[in-house]
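Researcher: Here's a chain I'd like modeled. Treat it as a single chain, no partners, no ligands.
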Amino acid sequence: MNSLALFQEGATQHQLGRIDQAIACYRKALALDPAFPEALHLLGVGLFQQGDRAEAIRLIEQAILLSPTQADFYNNLAEIHASSGDPLKAFFTYRQALLLDQQHPQASQGMQQLRNTHPNLPVFRNLEQLNHGMARHTFPTLALSQDDDLHQPTDQLIQLALKAAKHAKNIDLSVIAKRFDAESAAYIQLWPGEHYKLLAAFVKILQPELIIEIGTATGASALALKKFLPKKGKIVTYDVIPWNQYPGSGLAKDDFDQHLEQRIVDLSNPVLAETQRDDLAKADIVFVDAAKDGLMEHFFCAFFESVKFAAPCPLFVFDDIRMPVMLELWRSIKHPKLDFTSLGHWSGTGLVLWK
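Model: Modeled as a single isolated chain. Structure tokens:
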């Protein structure tokens, strides 16, 4: 029998409740074809049914890496996380299944059950359900909330921010600006009001060995971060669109060297994020400038809470924190933080020491 026939026999045995026979068939199929995602997936399901959660998770994640658009794979992985007492990981894995199939019945039911059991899970609003900029405070404001009283900036963060502002005032990004059209060039040179000079200033002060950027876009931020990068420094910038396919990109092939690398990885995908965990843990600076869709940034923060960083308290810079869809995220961050918008980006610049 070939691998497909063995897999189909295994699936038939599985449906009949003969788990041992099904597992044996899946293993034989994988012996012939180790990169058979459906066989990996159902072998993981079978092993989970026999009580081996760790191996089940490993196999289903391997299946997802081979075939990342299968909603069923994410749904079954989420069920394992939920049964293992990890509701947040289950939540974001169910979310991934529903991104692929909005009507997936098991994922929809699993998500609802999670919410019923864990009411404090993130609430994602669409554009029609936004709070219209109403922060939770006695007087409605975008700038301040009583929630912030619990996570005041440390003296270290305040001094770093003030020092960066002083450096930013004198930084010249005209060489970078020339790569872009006139309107974009003006933004790159603008400060305060934009964040490019401030990003360069943080690099100049901290001299980081590794910078993680989430959201490459046109590359203006990556180029600003690279300006004062030390000789041993490196920027890894993540996006779902290659730099040379992004409209208006100011990047060139020669920019990518030992100091700058783009990785086409969707870090809002829980399985793909795990493949980057070891590298993310080495970050000294993390710049988050992603979709601002009310979804991605929440996952990033939840994921980073589980990362054991090598640096004692890496600097996180969040862009656009004054956007209504980002307010809930900013309020949810439970680390020393500073809203530095007045000396950063007009739509919001948030600084966090991730302790």
